[in-house]
Design a protein that fits this description.
It is a single chain. This protein has 267 residues and is of the alpha/beta class. The chain has helices at residues 44-52, 91-101, 107-120, 136-150, 166-181, 196-202, 230-233, 237-264; strands at residues 2-11, 21-29, 33-37, 59-64, 67-68, 76-79, 154-158, 188-192, 205-209, 216-221. A 6-stranded mixed β-sheet has the order 6-7-8-3-9-10, with helices on both faces. It has a 4-stranded antiparallel β-sheet with strand order 2-1-4-5, with helices on one face. A hairpin with a 2-residue loop joins strand 4 and strand 5. The chain is globular. The model has no long low-confidence stretch (mean pLDDT 92). Bound molecules: adenosine-5'-triphosphate and magnesium ion. Residues 44-45, 81, 158 line the site of magnesium ion.
Length: 267
């Protein structure tokens, strides 16, 4: 059953001429892990803003559980592309605040849970550092731990592992799968990534976006059973085929866009 639904959604930011998103229709099922890939500037973060209820659509309809999305809510945890931690709070306090705000835990319990979450993302010895004292990848891991603290039914994640090094990235991907599986009650995840291998490892379906204004070019079903084993996955001929298909879709679209721009400029 579709939990999140976008119907002919368009978004033009105030003062902009060109829409960031146009004619975007997409359904995300309850318990589904949907990955979105697409060229830079195609409207992926804008779509997260729309689903989060932070940016109103210019036209079209967005619903969650058949109710229009009009504002942010505790039912959606967002991991932003720029981490968005509170700079005046330590890593630990950022997570305690999320637990407290969402009513999940307070006082000593919140502090203990926050420590566990930081440990899960490999940052237990950095709990008293402020965001400005952490590397980009570490900030991103705190932001992920904070999102996990919210334990929301829907996760909107904007390149959550983009700044994380390869080793931590692999363990965070597996952590995300654990979070997604929950206690048998699967979360619904909308994951923006520029990494095709990440999308193929994690997702049930992959939505390939066109260059801006963003809309869905193709939905790809990822056929591999779970649990997936990276080592075997990358050797599966279907994996290689799908990877090539996505790459060529993206390349063709980018080339077509470039030709249009060049043609328009009379080159
Ligand atoms: N707050 C904003 N105000 C005005 N224009 C914006 C705003 N945010 C994004 N845009 C514009 O909307 C378009 C889509 O941007 P968006 O950030 O959604 O792309 P993206 O697919 O997330 O790109 P990337 O992969 O680089 O993160 C771009 O042309 C961008 O300049
Ligand atoms: Mg973005």
């Amino acid at each position: 059953m579709a939990l999140l639904n976008l119907e002919s959604v368009a978004l033009t930011y105030p003062g902009d001429e060109r829409p960031a998103v146009e004619n975007l229709s997409l359904s995300i099922n309850q318990g589904e892990l949907l990955a979105v890939v697409g060229p830079s500037g195609c409207g992926k973060s804008s779509t997260i803003g729309l689903l989060a209820g932070l940016t109103p659509a210019t036209s079209g309809l967005l619903t969650l559980n058949d109710s229009p999305i009009l504002a942010p809510g505790p039912d959606r945890a967002v991991v932003f592309q720029d981490y968005s931690l509170f700079p005046w709070m330590t890593a630990l306090d950022n997570i305690i605040f999320a637990l407290d705000e969402s009513g999940r835990a307070t006082g000593k319990t919140a502090s203990e849970q926050a420590k566990k979450l930081l440990d899960m993302v490999g940052l237990s010895s950095y709990s008293h550092k402020y965001p400005s004292e952490l590397s980009g990848g570490m900030r991103q891991r705190v932001a992920i731990a904070r999102a996990f603290a919210l334990d929301a039914p829907v996760y909107l994640m904007d390149e959550p592992f983009g700044a994380v090094d390869a080793k931590n990235r692999v363990s965070l991907q597996d952590l995300l799968l654990k979070l997604w599986a929950g206690d048998g009650n699967k979360k619904t995840v909308f994951l923006v990534t520029h990494d095709i291998d990440e999308a193929l490892y994690l997702a049930d379906r992959i939505a390939v976006f066109t260059p801006g204004p963003g809309r869905v070019l193709k939905i790809i079903d990822v056929p591999f059973p779970r649990p997936r084993r990276r080592f075997f996955l990358v050797q599966d001929p279907r994996y290689i085929e799908l990877r090539n298909e996505i790459l060529s879709l993206l390349q063709k679209e980018i080339l077509a866009e470039l030709q249009q721009v060049e043609g328009g400029a009379g080159i």
